[in-house]
Amino acid sequence: MAKNLVIVESPAKAKTIEKFLGKEFKVASSFGHIADLPAKELGVDVSGDFSAKYIVSSDKKKLVSELKSLAKNAEMIWLASDEDREGEAIAWHLANTLNLTEANSKRIVFSEITKNAILKARSASLVTGMASIADDSGIEIEYLNGRPGIKSARYSGENATNKMNNIKLLDELRGIPYEKRKACYRCVIVYMKFPDDPFPVITSGSWDGYITEKPIGENGFGYDPLFFLPEYNKTSAQITSEEKNKISHRAKALSELQKYFPKEK
To answer: Which of these is catalytic: 49, 82, 136, 196?
Structure first.
């Protein structure tokens, strides 16, 4: 029996993820939502504290029973639905329906870059014979259905430069209005004690913004001159390194990773 149970929304995604996680992981799918408000009664206590009542959908009862069995035999359950509002709702229902606790479950998001980070960490540990930390990151544009994603560094070709990548991205978004230029930097960091570590630490961070119509700013690298931050009214190439190191996708992932390494008193 696998020590880790990973639950995602899509059965197709489950098959893809299981291929690179290794034998210590069992990946299952919730096939979307597993619970909903009751259809034949008001599912909200309007006369009290407005708490909601959720029930397992009739067509999901067998699946939930199977997930409970898998969870019972796993040492750690990873809730890996998407990080949008719907994905968070699915993870919340899974945690409550399967009676999970903070001790035996973790919330994580698997994106395209997760595989690369895991493979990098595993390779580094194999070569050095030591524990390893590896990361992978990329930028995703909503209008481009998530591109460049894992190809961020090579978006304009194998020998791409930052300038070439920026030009290509601006060309693809030419004429697209501001509200449709939403972008998200993502970073995944993986820590492995040894190559076949059955419990690798996987953390992630995201950073939201918009793509400008031209490069602005001299700091940073990659797509920073195009990555506009509304709350700062600047691109990430205009803010200081100190500011960036507090709010970036990588900073958030590192902050999560630090929680696994208690400070010595």
So the answer is: 136
